[in-house]
Amino acid sequence: MAIIHHITTVDRWENCLAEGTYAPEMFTVDGFIHCSKQDQVIQVANTRFRGENNLVLLCIDTERVLAKIVYENLEGGAELFPHIYGKLNNDAVAQVVKFQPGANGYFALPDQVNSSR
Prior knowledge:
Layout: E1 3-9, H1 10-17, E2 21-22, H2 27-30, E3 33-34, H3 41-48, E4 55-61, E5 68-72, E6 81-85, E7 88-89, E8 93-99
Antiparallel strand pairs: 1-4, 2-7, 3-6, 4-8, 5-6
């Protein structure tokens, strides 16, 4: 089982639970769901979400995702990031972890995150 991660707000995740699928607000613009491998999560969190509260980290089992997953870099770098090209079926989410920054506004990987990659 390979796990990829997606950062979202508690409200967005809870609103999608009843629908059975999840998509971030920018899905209609981007056309995919931005995700990260475990070793990329903190870099992404501190770059894009520093100081934000009320977040969760979705731990996604790639074997259960129904949509296509593409590992790519659309910003011109060499590091590849997983992108889900379709809405995420909620039953592919193996774990939902509260994801809050420390007092300095920076994130650290929560202890309870499954270490599977």
